[in-house]
Specification:
heterodimer; A: alpha/beta; Alpha-Beta Plaits; 3-methyladenine DNA Glycosylase II, Chain A, domain 3; 3 domains; 4-stranded parallel beta sheet; 17 helices; 11 strands; globular; B: alpha+beta; Heat Shock Protein 90; 5 strands
Chain lengths: 426, 144
């Protein structure tokens, strides 16, 4: 798998070559050329903003088809809190898991108890004493780690080196089933119902681990109709039992929930990719000194705002809050168990995260300086209104594309007009 | 390449203009990243520029920041139109500040500005004349 696999892709047939996505991309990773948008792989962080803003639904996420589960003898589904926000709270958590099971799974697990395990490890290991630079950052959102790696590598020392609750669940469940059911690990397929494309990338371009235990990710949006149908079939049942939940863990689906369930007072909870970038900028400058913990999500509202969901994020947020408050929470695991997990290293990152180099104008600093001087000259001739008609998000981005031979000055319609009227005057 | 190839950035900073606080440093950082300058050097230059910006906003009658970048170094010059620093030694002490209560209430004026700038610089110089103005020059080397 290449270094630049992305789960956000573009369908050329649907793309109209408009400027919505290029203007909204937080890393200026999209250009429109010859009437079609294209994504610059090395800049994309899979945040999914383009999917959200595309009026023609031309930006798509690569997820796994439900068919893929048939490859495995024993099929497991993992349900994140965000899924529960998609249905009326009267439905009940048990029925939602049952409806997922009816898609063809042998067993279904709710992620919330595994979020509790993450909370306990963060609280009782990493936040005790000075085990990590403050504010400690633990991100269940893969986009955040990606952007830190790409743009704020100095903050990597603040990041708690532990896998996501999705992977914690996958690891514990797989190990347990190998023992309980006498399957080989390769016979068991663990599938996560994903609210976003970034999660898909996280098991393909690995961060901190060399082997994911999650085998596939299925878009919630893709199976939503099927789930609704299954729920209608379950309507007559009073209640479905047999699954484990944690109210505390359910909070992880919305912004602030992580910090709440860990029980930290001095925390920052930041959602929305632009806000996240601002806070990381300030952290890198050393401007924020009195905070213990940062949780951050690319999507507004946290995972409930994921681009592969169906329900309005604010509606979903209220529902999850309600469910979290009305679902009992088991006691967090004790310090002894936490330390045992740390010792066995089951959830620890095993690979050192290397900073990724940001795309510079040229690999050679001297040449980059010359190119920037040239770009400045070109920029003076551009109108400076960042209209996007040339296919680049800003006039500066166009100037930089021109010096690297990826665009021409006449791509700017204002420059073109000037040149034509000069020709006309002879 | 010739030695004279240089990117030069110039920012005008007005006294008490908190709305623009951070603009110079964040723009400088963007430029350095595009030039492929290593991230630790970029961060140090951003800290120096940010502290310089805040000093001009909080303490000066306004001034400018000039950032010159060539292949060997980043030079950051903060120049203001007064009032000048009465006691430079004191100003360099950690925790010493002449900032007003009003500024401190906003979370600034902790007396770490100049010491922070010095800590992040490879070469550091302050020239100040009371009544005329202050020029702070910081140089950060770019390793080969």
């Amino acid at each position: 798998m290449g270094d630049y696999f992305h789960s956000v892709v573009l369908s050329e047939d649907s793309c109209k070559g408009c400027t919505h996505c290029i203007k909204r991309c937080p890393t200026e990773a999209i250009r429109v050329r010859d009437g079609n948008a294209s994504i610059i792989g090395e800049r994309c962080i899979d945040c999914g903003e383009c999917i959200r803003v595309c009026p023609y639904h031309a930006q798509k996420a690569v997820t796994d088809d439900l068919e893929k589960i048939k490859k495995y003898k024993y099929k497991i589904a993992l349900v994140p809190p965000a899924l529960h926000g998609q249905f009326d709270t009267n439905v009940g958590l048990g029925k939602i898991l049952k409806a997922v099971e009816m898609l063809g799974f042998d067993e279904v697990f709710d992620i919330s108890p595994y979020c509790d395990i993450a909370s306990a490890i963060i609280k009782k290991h990493y936040l005790q004493e000075k085990k990590i630079t403050r504010p400690a950052i633990y991100s269940d959102c893969p986009v955040i780690i990606r952007i830190i790696q790409l743009r704020y590598p100095d903050l990597l020392e603040n990041v708690i080196p532990m896998v996501s609750p999705m992977e914690i669940a996958a690891r514990l469940i797989k190990t347990d089933i190998v023992e309980r059911k006498n399957f080989r690990q390769g016979d068991i397929g663990v599938f996560y119902l994903t609210p976003c494309p970034a999660r898909v990338t996280s098991v393909r371009v690995l961060i901190g681990i060399s082997l994911p235990y999650t085998d596939g990710l299925i878009s919630i949006r893709k199976v939503f109709a099927h789930l609704s149908k299954n729920l209608r079939e379950l309507q007559s049942l009073e209640k479905v039992e047999g699954y484990e939940f944690s109210g505390r863990g359910l909070k992880w689906g919305t912004i602030g929930g992580q910090s709440h369930s860990i029980g930290i007072k001095n925390y920052l909870a930041v959602d929305g990719i632009e806000n996240v970038i601002n806070i990381l900028e300030e952290l890198e400058l050393g401007k924020i000194r009195d905070m213990e913990f940062l949780e951050a999500y690319a999507c507004t509202g946290g995972c409930v705002g994921g681009p592969l969901l169906v329900e309005n994020a604010f509606v979903a947020k209220t529902r999850i809050k309600h469910l979290a408050a009305t679902t009992p929470s088991p006691k967090l695991i004790g310090k002894e168990k936490v330390e045992k997990y740390i010792e066995t290293g089951l959830f620890n990152w095993t690979e050192k995260i290397k900073p990724k180099k940001m795309v510079s104008l040229d690999p050679n600093i001297g040449k980059a300086i010359q190119k920037m001087e040239k770009a400045e000259e070109i920029l003076k001739k551009l109108p400076g209104i960042d209209c996007g008609s040339c296919g680049a998000p800003t006039c500066r981005a166009l100037a930089e594309d021109i010096v690297n031979g990826r665009a021409r000055e006449v791509d700017c319609i204002f420059r073109l007009k000037e040149i034509i009227s000069r020709m006309d005057r002879g | 390449m010739s030695q004279k190839d240089m990117v030069s950035l110039n920012y005008r900073v007005n006294a008490e203009d908190f709305a623009k606080a951070g603009d110079a440093s964040s723009n400088t950082k963007k430029v350095l990243k595009k030039l492929g300058i290593p991230s630790d050097i970029t961060r140090r230059a951003a800290v120096v520029t940010y502290e310089a910006e805040m000093n001009l906003i909080i303490h000066s009658n306004g001034g400018e920041i000039i950032v010159n970048i060539d292949t060997t170094k980043i030079q950051i010059i903060a120049r203001d139109f007064g009032p000048g620093i009465p006691d430079i030694d004191k100003a360099m002490q950690k925790g010493y500040s002449t900032a007003s209560d009003h500024v401190r209430e906003m979370g600034f004026g902790a007396g770490m500005g100049l010491p922070n700038m010095k800590r992040c610089s490879d070469e550091f110089e302050i020239e100040s004349k009371k009544g005329e103005g202050t020029t702070v020059t910081s140089i950060i080397h770019i390793p080969d």
